[in-house]
Structure formats: C-alpha cells, structure tokens
Amino acid sequence: MSPTVIRIEDAHKVYNTGEVEVHALRGVSFEVKKGEFVAVMGPSGSGKSTMMNIIGCLDRVTNGSYLLDGIDVATLSKDQLADIRNQKIGFVFQSFNLISRTSVLDNVMLPMVYAGLPVPERQRRARLALASVGLAEKERSLPNQLSGGQQQRVALARALANEPSLILADEPTGALDTRTSEEVMNIFQGLNRENGITIVLITHEPDIAAYADRIVRFRDGRICEEGGRGEELAS
Ligand code: ADP
Ligand code: MG
Q1: d(CA 180, CA 184)
Q2: How many angstroms is it from 205 CA to the middle of ligand 2?
C-alpha cells in the first residue's frame, strides 16, 4: 500500500472580502497516495484552485485539517511552509508564468536560487530538466521565441528543477490547442509512470482528465463525485 501524500479532512475555506464572505470550500475531504495521478474537474468557481492553493501550502484552510506527507501543515511557520514548497512541490499554471527577457535555461534555474544550490549544480539540474521535456536545444532561447506548448514544457522543466515528489498543475493545457495539449500531457504521464511523481491536475477538459488514474469532481465547494478513469469513461 502506497503512503498517503495528501490527506485533507473536512476542509472549509472562507474568504472575507469586505462585507461578503465567500465559502469557497464547504467540507472537502480528499486523499492522494504516493504515485497517483489525479484529475480535478468541476465548473468555474467551484473551489478547485482554492483546494490546489491549500495543497501547495500557498494558503491555509479556515477549518479542517491538511496533512502533507503526514505533517499537519497548520503546525508549520511561513518559512517552514516555504521550505516544504521548495523541496516537495512543483507548480504548473495555465499562463506559464515565465520571465520574458530571460533565457529558457535561466527560467528553469530560478527556483533553485531559493533552494540555495551552487550555480554549476543549478545548471546541471536545469539542463536535465529541459532534456526531460525534450527542449535541451532551446536553453538559450527567450520564452517568446517558443510556441505555447514549448513554453509550457519550459514551465514544466522549471517545476521539475527542485526534483519535486508532487506536481500541482492548475489548468496547464487551458491555453493550448489539442495537439499541443497532448504533447504536454504525455510528459505529465511519463513523469508519473516513469519517475513516480504524484500529480494533481485541474482541468475542465474530459480528454485531459482521461490521462489521470482517478477523477474528482467539485461542485459548489464540495466534492460531488470520485471515481476511476474506467468509471468515468463508462458514464
Ligand atoms: P475554481 O478554481 O474552481 O474556478 P476558485 O477556487 O478559484 O474556483 O474559487 C472558488 C470561489 O472562491 C469563487 O467564488 C471565487 O470567486 C472565490 N475566491 C477565490 N479566491 C478568492 C480570493 N482570493 N478572495 C476572495 N474570493 C476568492
Ligand atoms: Mg481555478
């Protein structure tokens, strides 16, 4: 039995925006085992990104608990959370978030600055990460010289640079066409199957969710359906 990486229990998240309270999560319980590839689906505003931010230690629950690798994150300081993010988690977003006037190699090296690695080691790892997404020959290019799919692969290489055990991806193919999306999803799948990296990926596209082993659906701040890929395709 694989160890549990993510264990969220009865999580509530309330945003206070002036006079209104937004209940983004209303009692979410969610578990992910090591080596799983989970897709998160659901309509816009249903709480997917909120949960992803909590999983990524970018935000905290208002009520309920979150254990990451068995550690209750509520007991950790901001600095400790930042360390955990650096050591364990790679993030990929819809909008690539690359630095425009900076080479592909430097973009990939950036997260390792915070990890305190020496420059040659940063370069070595960045080149390895770029090779693993098939972009070794593009290290001197600037992001705007690349296609959307290539830019997302650079973002993926950047997420891999610190050798994370968990990748969190929030609509990573949202800005890509179908063929390019497949290219990026094949890389996610390889990282999961060959490198054993745990992946949680938000998408609203069934074709993309089909790459995962399991699909979780959100609705109004709750999980309304959980199932394997087989069940999903049959329904
Ligand atoms: P999804 O990713 O499924 O589209 P979100 O988690 O982004 O949904 O949002 C869930 C709800 O929380 C929405 O009503 C959204 O407007 C609200 N929300 C998200 N982030 C914030 C924030 N930082 N401040 C206030 N409300 C927020
Ligand atoms: Mg979202």
Answers
A1: 6
A2: 13
**Longest CA pairwise span in the chain (Å):** 53
Whose CA is closest to atom 15 on ligand 1? 45
User: Does residue 218 contact residue 45 with C-beta atoms inside 8 Å?
Assistant: no
pLDDT in tens, the chain (235 residues): 789 999 999 999 999 988 899 999 999 999 999 999 999 999 999 999 999 999 999 999 999 999 999 999 999 999 999 999 989 999 999 999 999 999 999 999 998 887 778 999 999 999 999 999 999 999 999 999 999 999 999 999 999 988 999 999 999 999 999 999 999 999 999 999 999 999 999 999 999 999 999 999 999 999 998 877 645 444 4
Q: How far is the CA of 45 from the centre of ligand 1 (A)?
A: 6
Structural domains of the chain sorted by starting position, each given as residue range(s) with its CATH number in brackets? 35-56+77-234 (3.40.50.300)
What is the pTM for the complete model shown?
A: 0.93
